Amino acid sequence: SKRRVKIIRFKRRNLWARYMSLKMAVATGIWNLSSAEDKERQLNSIKNKLTVPPDEMANQFEYFRSLDKEADEWAERNGSATLTLEYERCLAKMALYVERIFAFLGADYSLFSESRGVLESSFPSTDGERLLEYVGNAAEIREYLGAHRMGHFVGMHDYSALQHLVFEPKEGKLRPRGD
Length: 179
Prior knowledge:
Radius of gyration: 20 Å
Order of helices and strands: EHHHEHHHHEE
Oligomer: single chain
Strand order of the largest sheet: 1-2
């Protein structure tokens, strides 16, 4: 039987932002930031300096997906109720989501509401397109994400079917990319 445990799951939907957060923390040695100003100051040191190998990035995306699946299954087995929240949305409207968390837990939010202004201004939302500023091979990564139906992570449209075709000069015809 399930324990009477309520579980709150934060999921980061933008795998690119999740990957870059990890990559930037490793590069700077800074894993926690106390303010948006600290974030800007600390990250300016790595602007345009990170190299993102597409294969490494793709492998990390798969690893993130497997971790999420494992965590979802664990929560299903062990919780009496689970509240799943998207990380990006929580950052954008933190006070609203804190209120939802309090309601889920059956706690009195009015005891916490004085902090509302602080919550809204502490951290900016994660912008996947802006993260490209820290990548030396940004054009290659933009191309990779668009070609693999993940362009939305960096604010661009995924490639159309026509863009997925590659011209083979020797054969004089188009073929699907990757074949």
